[in-house]
Amino acid sequence: MMMRRVNKSNLFQQLKDYLEENKLDLFQESLQSLHIQDQVDWFQKLDDKRLRQKVYSVLTPEQLADILQGLEIDEQKNVMDEMDRNKWIATLNEMASDDVADYLTELSEQDVNAALGEMDQVAAKRVKKIMEYQEETAGALMATEYIAIKTTDTVQSVMSRLRDEAPEAETIYYIYVTDTEGSLVGVVSLRDLITNEPEVNIEDVMSTRVVSVKVNQDQEEVARLIQKYDFLAVPVITDDNKLVGIITVDDILDVIEEEATEDFGEISAVRGATGTDVTAWDAAKKRAPWIIMLMFLGLITAEVIGQFEETLEAIVILAAFIPLIMDSAGNTGTQSLAVMVRNLAIGTFDKRNVWRVLRREFFTGVMIGLGSAVTLAILIIIFYDQNLALAGVVGTSILLTLSISTLTGSIIPLIIDKFKIDPAVASGPFITTLNDIMGLLIYFTIATSMIHYLM
């Protein structure tokens, strides 16, 4: 209880002091009294390599595995490089198979083969099984440390088995039931086991309505399924219904963060350059292609303005409203893009109702455009000598531009999704530039047709 009252920063310093003073028993006892995530936080702040080496020698492989599983891949690689080889292998043996697979995929093929060759063969076999599956699928995401039971087992025998095997399992809140062939036939919750008599057979307790995912199913689909059913875990099966692993909600939270970061990178044209550890050179390499492409698209914008040079020379005041038209078009299109990409990403968009959605977005743009047009018209009349013609040109242009921009921001992601491409690649800068061009065409076309009223 006293440990909980100590300020965390003071406790972290105390742990460091214990290492400095070689009070290693006190250090280990104090560290293990912390929540595992607090242990990870403390270790991440320990920037003295000499002290980290002491941590590696004092902690057991099981304790190190708990900490390493909370680190990012790059951090894991740095730690593993500092460790004694034997301790490193022993720690890999204690880590969850899916975490080891994630780590090993970042190494060279030679290093992977060497590590798997030195690992405990049972643990290595589990890791190899996961690494066989394509990235971002259920198979690559699953853990193979699960407890499977038979229909003929009794509640008592299962509870006894849980006491022995629970520490090694990824989760015990759901226990999956298989037949003699290893096919998934049911599921039992920990609550079911606790609330039933010891002599009852699992067949009489289990639920046969099991929601599962296939090994090759996309991780985003798995995330949506767990979110839909509020599961803590979901079983992973092969095409012939053989149980091969489970995916827990903590892994799904990582997937959701990863996919959200990826979509954010796509929609803002900075994919792969959002991390704080990315160097300026790498960030420039990833972002430059989009900027260069958009620069060439910008030349089209300049060409549109050039085509209406005579109109601009005759009515100079029109130039004052070019930024307003372009910014409004780009902003409205980006809003629709974000709405559509999000709905496509989380699976809430029903493609059978595509026309209804597009109609809604169009009329949303019409209403926004109408409000903006009226507001601008009033301001122009007040500040530009009651120039009704100019108010009409700018107001009509903003109405049409915003109406079409919302439609563009909705249609382009749908077209891209139709070709099985991530709709987030319809990035904000691309939609903005496209709508800029259309906005200028609308604006100058209307202005040119009404030039006699403007003069």
UniProtKB/TrEMBL annotation:
It is a multi-pass membrane protein. SMART domains: CBS, MgtE_N. GO terms for cellular component: plasma membrane. It holds the Pfam family MgtE. InterPro entries: CBS_dom (IPR000644), CBS_dom_sf (IPR046342), Mg_transptr_MgtE_intracell_dom (IPR006668), MgtE_N_sf (IPR038076), MgtE_transporter (IPR006669), SLC41_membr_dom (IPR006667), SLC41_membr_dom_sf (IPR036739). One of its GO terms (molecular function) is metal ion binding. Its main location: membrane. The keyword Transport applies. SUPFAM superfamilies: CBS-domain pair, MgtE membrane domain-like, MgtE N-terminal domain-like. It comes from the Bacteria. Keywords: CBS domain, Cell membrane, Magnesium, Membrane, Metal-binding, Transmembrane, Transmembrane helix, Transport. The keyword Translocase does not apply. The chain crosses the membrane at residues 290-308, 314-341, 362-384, 390-416, 437-454. PROSITE patterns: CBS. Residues 142-205, 206-262 form the CBS domain. It is found in: Cell membrane; Membrane. PANTHER family: MAGNESIUM TRANSPORTER MGTE. Belongs to the SLC41A transporter family. Homodimer. Acts as a magnesium transporter. This is Magnesium transporter MgtE. It comes from Alkalibacillus haloalkaliphilus.
